[in-house]
């Protein structure tokens, strides 16, 4: 029967190995095959840069950002109209 490992446990095990703990001892104490550890380690190292990326905006956030920009333009136009006395639209 296959075991399900949560991502926090996988990260803890991989980090322990990267920090110098003996991989064989680590695998033995966690009932894990060394091949699985090295597979996790490879995946961890290939994707570790993503920690420093900005998360993409959710669709709702993108709509709000677009509406915000439109409102800023409108406020700018209305400010010019009020200060110059001439309609800009």
Q: Into how many domains do the coordinates divide?
A: 2
Helical proportion, percent range: 55-70%
Structural class category: mainly alpha
Cα gyration radius (Å): 27 Å
Poorly predicted runs are none
What is the arithmetic mean of pLDDT?
A: 90
GO molecular function, one term: sequence-specific DNA binding
GO biological process, one term: DNA transposition
Pfam families: HTH_Tnp_1 (PF01527)
Protein name: Transposase IS3/IS911 family protein
Structural summary, described in words:
The chain is mostly helical. It folds into 2 domains: 1-53; 56-89. It is 66% helix and 0% strand. It has 4 helices and no strands. It has helices at 7-18, 23-29, 34-47, 59-84. α1 (7-18) crosses α3 (34-47). It starts with 6 loop residues before the first helix and ends in a 5-residue tail after the last helix. The model has no long low-confidence stretch (mean pLDDT 90).
